[in-house]
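Example record

The entry below shows one chain as it appears in the dataset: sequence first, then structure tokens.
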Amino acid sequence: MNFFGLLRHPRFSRLLAIRWTGQAVDGIFQSALASFVLFSPERQANALSAAVAFAVVLLPYSIVGPFVGTVLDRISRQRLLFISNLVRSANLLLVALFIFSGSTGVELTVVVLVAFGINRLILAALSAGLPLLVDSQSLVTANAMAVTGGSVLVVVGGGIGVGVRALVNSLALANHADALLILIAAIGYFVAALLTSRLSRFEIGPQKHEMKQASFSQGFIEMQEGLRFLKIHSDVARGIIATAVHRGGLTALTLTGLLLERNTFNDPNLPENGLKSFGFAISFAGVGVFLGAFLAPYGVSKVGRHRWIRYGIFASALSPLVLAAAHTQVTLIITAFLVSFFGQNVKVTSDALAQSRIDDYYRGRVFAVYDVLVNGAIVSGGLLAALLLPTSGLSTAVPLCVCAAYALVGLRLLRTSVFPPVQ
């Protein structure tokens, strides 16, 4: 089934509406946080503070990760989506209150951690439920639409956030403008909760006969089951690791771009200009993600999933060389586009490979492992970049290291002898 056929799919389109609404709101929320934490005039952004911000955002993903499979395989995913979006909406009211008052203490950190932890559960539920709505032949296309459309809407939401903030910034304090964006995001999450009512209780799983009582220790037990499953299906494991390494490298390059825009390409004393320029560069990354989604199903149909993942990682390895050659606005935008474009091909194809091989009984377990690996790689990529990056962001070492990491994955992890080309 093609893109337009899936858009008209009566069941899949409902899942898209929930995911895309939530991720557009994610962009608004994240732009407000970035503005408050990294682009405020009174805060000097450096590599370590930005890396720590990444780590704090992803900490709840890694904590929640071991228990995601237990929850997704035990209770109605539709009910989970409804309750999680409602709780997230209420949680953002607290975030807005703290930002309005200019609070940067432990209390703000805690409520932000809760918000992102809930978000991890929502995205995992949406991914786990997708294979129950479309046939296996349409999984690559469906993943391309769901994941890529969501990623693009995060960028769009971020752009909306920057635009709204620019409009109200002259009428209010910067903190108050950011708080207004958070309130808008809270309303958006409430709308996403309402959209879940269009799905029936067990339409996106789990199957009724698979539901059991969950225990606290069950999460770690089922993580082990997910790892054992990946040992049997080593090609799925290799695709997941390739995706994780790519996301880690992308985080390192994002950190580089953030510092370049904040402290080098723009006056550090005028962080609003840096935020706008960074948003502009990220928008090109969003275009790359969007176009990559269109190419992935075509490429897979021609050469197969394994070979397409390998091609994607090798093409990604060449992309950071553009930024390593020269640090300019243009080379940053080109690098952002290329790495996102080829990386999205890797992720969409890897997701479809995992979903096609996993029975629904194990799907939550395997995706819990997937989440933990990806988030661990993102945090590691950010922290490693922080060790190499000066405050200016001017560094050839980071793009070259990312290039080397991607090439190593292609040459060793995805070599033909262990990752043979199959359809």
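Notes for this example: The two ends are 17 Å apart (CA to CA). The chain has a mean pLDDT of 85.
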